[in-house]
Amino acid sequence: MSSRKNAPVSVIGAGIAGTWQALMLAKAGRSVTLFDGRATIPLTQDAGHWAGGMLAPHCEGETAEPVVVRLGVRSLALWKDALPDTPMNGSLVVAHGRDRADFERFAQRTSGHRAVTAKELGDLEPMLDGRFTEGLFYADEGRVEPRIDLPRLHARLREAGVTITDGAKEPSECEGIVVDCRGLGARDTASGKELRGVKGETVTIETHEITLTRPVRLLHPRYSIYVVPRSGGRYLIGATSIESEDLGVSVRSVLELLSAAYSIHPAFAEARVVEVGAGLRPAYPDNLPRIDVRGDHISVNGLYRHGFLLAPALAELLTAYVQHGEIDPEVMRCS
Q1: pLDDT class for 1, splitting at 50, 70, 90?
Q2: CA 208 to CA 231: how far, in whole Å?
Q3: How far apart (Å, rounded) are the C-alpha atoms in residues 230 and 218?
Q4: Which structural domains are found in the chain, ordered by start?
Q5: How far apart are CA 329 and CA 333, in angstroms?
Q6: How far is CA 156 from CA 76, 150, 176, 182, 317, in A?
Q7: pLDDT in tens, 153-186
């Protein structure tokens, strides 16, 4: 580790993973340069551009491995430290009566929640009053708004003395310790050969007839829909991941997303559709994040659909390795 003690750090990729890596390393006193190659790719291929931004580690425990929950819980505190105004007022899970079995299964597979009655649902979200007979309230969860909060983190980087450079950069062209956070752009490397793109489709709508203050998940046997509040009366509607690298959004997908929102509250029918799109999230075969250490070249990748949830905790782990040689065996591979 002595050779790394005073080495500068080059972080490649200024998406959410690279941004958090640069921020944590800078806080540790490292000289950091962040190479932002996003200007060289279409915005429609940027996973963070279409992300829901939900900080919901307990909800993710329904299908994710325990390590995702562990890292996600840690990330909640790191987000709050970096951006103190991050909304941490929880998230709600609901289901219609015909989907009671899915509701019970979700409750059994997740932790960090309490069951709420119809009245309590109405107290938490008045727009849901009378819409559902019960729900699950995950009080410790939160959310960020990716297109607003990522630039805010970049501002924090500049304040910390990090140089942010536009343009693509290859790991072999960088000096010092190289942290590769290019997502699917790293498939040309040894640690990125296993990566695949997993599509996430979203619809953004705008309405001032409905006010939700926290994310709401609607359970369904075939898909799970989430509605995430955005600023300016907007809501992002998304669903579970699709095993495809086709960035097109089908009519069927849009109808399902909008129908689910309508079933949460009929007033969504009068909302204005602002945007429809899809992004590709980088994933390994096990859908788990990985920090791959190969000498002074380190890859942080495979965040799957948990980018904004896991990036802070992964950055903390990598910084502990660079500074003190600490290794988290669940996440890190050293060769």
Answers
A1: very low
A2: 11
A3: 18
A4: 2-51+145-194+285-334 (3.50.50.60), 91-139+197-283 (3.30.9.10)
A5: 7
A6: 18, 10, 23, 21, 20
A7: 999 999 999 999 987 678 888 889 999 999 999 9
Strand order in the sheet with 332-334: 163-166, 32-36, 9-12, 177-180, 297-301, 290-294, 332-334
DSSP 78: H
pLDDT at 262: 93
Q: CB of 189 within 8 A of CB of 180?
A: yes
DSSP secondary structure of 254-305: HHHHHHHHHHH-GGGGGPEEEEEEEEEEEE-TT---EEEEETTEEEEE--TT
- Among 301, 309, 294, CA closest to 331: 301
User: And the tokens for 261?
Assistant: 């929102």
Locus of tokens 């062209």: 173
For strand 114-117 and strand 134-138, is the pairing parallel, antiparallel, or unpaired?
Answer: antiparallel
Task: Quote the CA–CA distance of 217 and 138 in Å, as a whole number.
Answer: 11
State the distance between the two ends of the chain, measured CA to CA, in whole angstroms.
14
284 or 222: which leads in pLDDT: 284
pLDDT (average), residues 53-72:
97
Structure tokens given for 86 = 């991050």
Per-residue confidence band for 3, with pLDDT thresholds at 50, 70 and 90: very low
Return mean pLDDT, the chain: 92
The alpha carbons of the chain give a radius of gyration, in whole angstroms, of: 20
Tokens of 286: 């096990």
